[in-house]
Amino acid sequence: MRLILFFLLFTVMTKVLAQDLQDSSDTEFSIQKFTWSTASVGALSAGSLYGLGKLWYGQQSQISFHLFNDAKNWMQMDKLGHTFSCYHVTRGLDALFSWTGLKEKKSLLLAAGIGLTYFTGIEILDGFSESWGFSLSDMGFNALGVGLYVFQEHYLQAQIFKPKFSFHQTRFAIQRPEVLGSNFIESVLKDYNGQTYWLSFSPGQMGLDKWPDWMMLSFGHSIRGRLKGDAMSYGGITSHREFLFSLDVDLSRLNVKSKFLKGLLKSLNTLKIPFPALIYANGKMNARPIYF
Asked: Global pTM?
């Protein structure tokens, strides 16, 4: 399921590239662009939901619609993934509809509505699966991701606080490859021990004059030793949280002349740049010279 979400994210980010390849002065509404964009998004959304229903959920036992409380599973790392995905999908959709010339407020509302509707559709599919269920906590974190983008765009007129993602391989996937991934790609999507979700911001974008607006401070959250979603200890290993502080780079603020490269950097701005990091865990502070 996570692979489908990231595929959607990648697809809408390519529309950001299309936006940057256009003349910035071209802001007049185009019915052709709008029709093409909405049709593409609709087809992608419907197609991916249909594919999920047939290829993923079709392999699972189906029962009547029900709720499922997984708020404590994986120490909320999967919830942060929902927030991250919803934020960036909304960001990509807003960029796409802005490219069509749609007015700012309408573009923002349409992007938020489509993003939240899409992720709600996935939760509804979960609701009919015997192995899962409709998760109210998932919906809450979905709304948080959409809301974070909408709030900043509407009230701050800028995306100052940017959710980002990083990953490093861990030894825990080897112990439960069927759950945490049997190869690198699977582990990126499944091994929460190797994932870190960050919130990056630049003091220079908040009024600190001498601070470069491309240099960011970043706060992260990760976990370690979690082998089973609802179990603090498993296989003799006890899990714990990690809170991190590091630096980051706002790739969208780098001074590059190529419109293609500028758009590409904007797309890659979902990823946290490796830097030294301070890590607080189990009441102790540690440092790493480089953290992925």
From this structure: 0.92
